[in-house]
């Protein structure tokens, strides 16, 4: 059996992409009197357990998952942390 890795994947809109959900959250924070918030960007956090022969194979698999399904590379960017379980 191959080693098991945990990928913690963070997906966010690219900086040039408009974020209406982030603007709504920011406006709501200000309506609640929390005016110190200057900007909000909303994204996704996912945890994926993946088997891989080694760390580099697990990284390649997570990259493939992100490129094909977890993120939309046209408007989103992603990063992930990988730890062996």
Which key terms come to mind for this protein?
33% strand, 85 residues, three-stranded antiparallel beta sheet, alpha+beta, Mth169, Chain: A
Structure description:
The two termini are 13 Å apart. The chain has a three-stranded antiparallel sheet, covered by helices on one side. It is elongated. The model has no long low-confidence stretch (mean pLDDT 97). Helices cover 33% and strands 33% of the residues. The protein contains two helices and three strands; from the N terminus they run βαβαβ. With 85 residues, the chain is α+β, with helices and mostly antiparallel strands.
The CATH class designation is Alpha Beta
Shape: elongated
Q: What radius of gyration results from the CA coordinates? A: 17 Å
Number of helices: 2
> What is the share of helical residues?
25-40%
Low-confidence stretches: none
Largest sheet data: 3 strands, antiparallel
The CATH topology assignment is Mth169, Chain: A
Number of domains: 1
Summarize the structure.
By secondary structure, the protein is an alpha+beta fold. It has helices at residues 20-31, 55-70, and strands spanning 4-13, 43-51, 76-84. Strands 2-1-3 form a three-stranded antiparallel sheet, covered by helices on one side.
Topology:
Layout (H helix, E strand, L loop, with lengths): L3 E10 L6 H12 L11 E9 L3 H16 L5 E9 L1
Antiparallel strand pairs: 1-2, 1-3
């Amino acid at each position: 059996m191959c080693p098991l890795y945990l990928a913690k994947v963070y997906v966010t809109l690219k900086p040039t992409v408009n974020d209406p959900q982030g603007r709504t959250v920011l406006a709501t924070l200000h309506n609640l009197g929390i005016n110190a918030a200057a900007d909000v960007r909303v994204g996704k956090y996912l945890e994926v357990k993946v088997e891989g022969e080694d760390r580099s194979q697990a990284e390649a698999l997570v990259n493939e998952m992100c490129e094909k399904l977890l993120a939309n590379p046209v408007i989103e960017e992603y990063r992930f942390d990988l730890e062996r379980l």
